[in-house]
Amino acid sequence: MFLFLLLAVVAVAASIAMITARNSIHSALFLVVDFFCLAVLYLTLNAEFLAAVQIVVYAGAIMVLFLFVITLLNPGNEETDDRLRGQRPLAVALGLALLVEVALLLRTQAIRDRLGDFPPATSFFEQVQTRINGTPTAPIGNVQAIGIELFTTYVLPFEVVSIVLLLAVIGAVVLAKRQLR
Amino acid sequence: MTGGDIIEAVVKSLIIIVALLTAFAYMTLYERRILGRMQLRSGPNRVGPAGLLQPVADGVKLAFKQAITPRGVDKPLYLLAPAISVVTALSAFAVIPVGPTYNIFGRAIPFHLADFNVGLLFVLAMGSLGAYGIVLAGYASNNKYSLLGGLRAAAQLISYELALGLSLVGILMISGSLSLTAIVEGQARGLWYILVQPLAFVIYLISAIAETNRAPFDLVEAEQELVGGYHTEYTGLRFALFFMAEYINMVTVSALAATLFLGGWHGPFDLLSGPWWLLAKIILILTLYVVLRATLPRLRYDQLMRLGWHWLLPLALLNVVLTAIGITLLQ
């Protein structure tokens, strides 16, 4: 619980710093701090694979690409101020409204029944273990559990997502080639 | 976690850090001596017997240099960058198994700091985080050449990480685990994976050299065109930290190659197995590094990208497919 509170405070502070930072490189780095807090949260939930993937994919690959683009274009600290002036109060009001809405919804019994207990009585890994081995105690790792679920229960969404990503890659290549000509 | 466990972890961490720093110091000497031999000169041989105290002299010299912070740098990032480089380089070694479990002072002590069940991903994660140190150093230095070095590093790391990661998928398919300890055990029971996955081994070695920014892939710090690259504006100990991170990364990728492909701390036919075998294998791969540096000219930028994307990546994918077919046929 103490660890969770610490991580939550750091994560929220980093998020606020990210949107208020003037320098876009600093913003990107605060986002990386946020990713790290999330990864450690996954670790406390015994989801090592998710934590590792969070670091490898988001912090290691995507944010390095972001940094690459930001340093390449090197925008000054001065921009974006005037363009968003009218939107700031509106954004705060809408954000608060959303927060209140979520809080109210979470208090209703119907939603609580759907969500179940937290933390759940049987974890995701135990559920997969029970389905594959018949007993929840048979040793099956984190990675295996996710792999089994991805290629059995969620095989269709998994393949659809791969096709969507492939289409995005093809689209990017087509756009880049058109500019060359 | 008892008090004993905590003391054990602290002692192991200290041993790993001291060992890696010593390895860094003597790797510089080893490299310079071999380079000297290959270029028909002696190399540093004056400080101490056979030049053995040269690293100490270098360290003292760097420590007493003035720490200059140029005008116009992004101060927090400028100071953070070398620290990120060293921390990621040091922590990657935590999951590499160095030896079997020994009984010391009546305590069963496994010779690795952490047996993480996603250990391999952890090493890869630390490797990709190392890029931040270089990119941030390039950005924060307020220098065109440093920035170019940093940008090159980012592009190079992203390109070669893919091939590196994919070359290891075959091993995961054969061993069925992401834990390095389990992978070493798997090799002790059967063949070393270099015999089963020779293509993956070659792809891994090439990508690893590119990941550590070593010759012939050292465009990141090409002194002829970039003055020095991302660390141009760093002096004294801060520069030494980047230097240290580069050499420790070399040791780590060599240790990983030895662990994944060459049986780790096991000897051939399990002969006299122990940490010394891992050390011997690491030295062998590091020697290859130095010999490559002495013999190959640096690649051009377009050649670097073509090699990564047109050759290594498709070959790594092919290796995954071949391994899958092989496993299915053998079952």
Question: What is the number of beta strands of chain B?
Answer: 2
Calculate Rg of chain A over CA atoms: 21 Å
Order of helices and strands of chain A: HHHHHHHH
Quick one: biggest sheet of chain B? 2 strands, antiparallel
Could you explain how this protein is built, in words?
The complex is a heterodimer of chains A (181) and B (331). In chain A, 77% of the residues lie in helices and 0% in strands. With 181 residues, chain A is mainly alpha-helical. Chain A has 2 domains: 1-75, Up-down Bundle (Four Helix Bundle (Hemerythrin (Met), subunit A)), CATH 1.20.120.1200; 122-181, no CATH class. Chain A is globular. Chain A starts with a helix and ends with a helix. The mean pLDDT of chain A is 80. With 331 residues, chain B is an all-alpha fold. Chain B has one domain (3-330). In chain B, 68% of the residues lie in helices and 2% in strands. Chain B has helices at residues 3-38, 54-63, 75-91, 119-140, 144-175, 180-189, 193-196, 198-211, 223-226, 236-261, 275-295, 301-330; strands spanning 101-104, 107-110. A two-stranded antiparallel ribbon of chain B has the order 1-2. Classes of the chains: A mainly alpha (181), B mainly alpha (331). At the A-B interface, helix 2 and helix 3 of A face helix 4 and helix 5 of B.
Outline the fold blueprint.
The complex is a heterodimer of chains A (about 180) and B (about 325).
Chain A: H1 2-20, H2 24-44, H3 48-73, H4 87-107, H5 109-115, H6 124-133, H7 142-151, H8 155-180
Chain B: H1 3-38, H2 54-63, H3 75-91, E1 101-104, E2 107-110, H4 119-140, H5 144-175, H6 180-189, H7 193-196, H8 198-211, H9 223-226, H10 236-261, H11 275-295, H12 301-330
Antiparallel strand pairs in B: 1-2
